[in-house]
Write a structure and sequence with these properties.
The complex is a heterodimer of chains A (about 130) and B (about 220). With about 130 residues, chain A is an alpha/beta fold. Chain A has helices at about 15-25, 40-45, 65-75, 90-100, 110-125, and strands spanning about 5-10, 30-35, 50-55, 80-85, 105. In chain A, α1 links the parallel β1 (about 5-10) and β2 (about 30-35). Chain B is about 70% helix and about 0% strand. The chains are: A alpha/beta (about 130), B mainly alpha (about 220).
Chain lengths: ~130, ~220
């Protein structure tokens, strides 16, 4: 797995951006960018090249599921691996995310080991 | 024998409130009692039960003081906001300390570097509580607001302020509008509901199994 990949973290809680960012840095990823909701993330994704999106679901004005759908509908972004990191653990949420093309799904609270494993799985399948 | 005259009064009196409804039921009871039919005795008992119920609800609602809306609910909302702000501030201080520990690890020998780094990781992981707490608090605030709205609607209905033209349950009972749908309520779209309670929420292993099953 390329540790120089550019990762975009999307979450409306700044603490979570900080937590995920620090966990990624501990996993030796250093090119990390942040966005506070789906629309800000989408603007950043369209401006620059990102190798991975790690997004929360429950955000306003654009939530994580809508961001995922926008990413998959955009030919330039469609192939970007997308991991949902969310407190939404109902089956219908997981199914909706899967149908929208999510690469993997992490339920909060999570630990560094889970994050590392999911990253490895996503890039092994990429 | 026709009883058209017996029922004429209740039909022509279009109830406008719970008080009108009570009056209508009382008139109906008088009419049914006057007819002295055995089959209608049960109906009279049922109507008396409904009457008592309406009176009970009106009494209960009249006891809801204005301080509920002007003091208790706003205070509870402010308290919830304070919980969010306090936990966010505390979490940021904890994170500052964890990042300092993490930075100290860099200059250390392998064993202590690993130990310090592992400690920082555990603190980072534990800090995810703030996100979940914030989402739970937001759910409580939404529930509180909905309760306030429903109480307002009930009071309006049972004190006749809605100006209902006839006894139409669909009109008397407020119907949810799309904008009022609660998170997770079915309007054909999967919504974010926030964290589920421990024991109900799916584990990562269950999510993984579901993802696997979905292919």
């Amino acid at each position: 797995m390329n540790k120089n990949m550019k990762i975009l973290i999307v979450d409306d809680y700044k603490t979570m951006l900080r937590v995920i960012g620090n966990l990624l840095r501990q996993l030796e990823f250093s090119h990390i960018d942040e966005a506070l909701d789906g629309s800000e993330a989408l603007a950043k994704l369209r401006q620059g090249k990102y190798d991975l999106v790690i997004s929360d679901w429950n955000m306003e004005p654009m939530n994580g599921l809508d961001l995922l759908k926008e990413v998959r509908a955009d030919p330039k972004l469609a192939g970007t691996p997308f991991i949902m990191v969310t407190a939404e653990s109902k089956s219908e949420n997981v199914i909706a995310a899967k149908q929208a093309g999510v690469s993997n799904y992490i339920v909060k609270p999570f630990n560094a080991e889970t994050l590392g494993k999911k990253l490895a799985t996503v890039f092994a399948n990429a | 024998m026709s009883h058209a005259n017996d029922t004429a009064a209740p039909r022509s009196a279009a109830p406008r409130s719970a008080a009108d409804m009570q009056s209508l039921i009382e008139q109906l009871i008088v009419v049914l009692r006057a007819r002295r039919r055995e089959a209608e005795a049960t109906l009279v008992v049922e109507l008396q039960g409904i009457l008592a119920y309406i009176q009970g609800v009106r009494t209960d609602l009249s006891q809801i003081g204005p301080e509920l809306k002007t003091h208790y609910i706003p205070t509870a909302t402010d308290e919830l906001e304070a919980i969010s702000e306090t936990t966010a501030a505390a979490t940021n201080r904890i994170m500052d300390a964890a990042e300092a520990i993490d930075a100290m690890a860099d200059g250390r020998a392998s064993a202590s570097k690993e130990a310090l780094s592992a400690a920082a990781t555990q603190i980072y992981e534990a800090c995810t509580f703030q996100d979940l707490t914030g989402q739970r608090v937001r759910k409580i605030a939404t529930a509180l607001h909905e309760t306030e709205v429903k109480i307002d609607q009930l009071i309006a209905t049972f004190t006749g302020r809605l100006g209902i033209a006839s006894v139409d349950l669909a009109a008397v009972l407020p119907q949810p509008q799309p904008a009022q749908l609660r998170p997770g309520q079915d309007d054909g779209e999967v919504r974010a509901c926030g964290p589920q309670l421990p024991g109900i929420a799916k584990t990562q292993a269950e999510i993984d199994a579901l993802m696997e099953e979905l292919g």
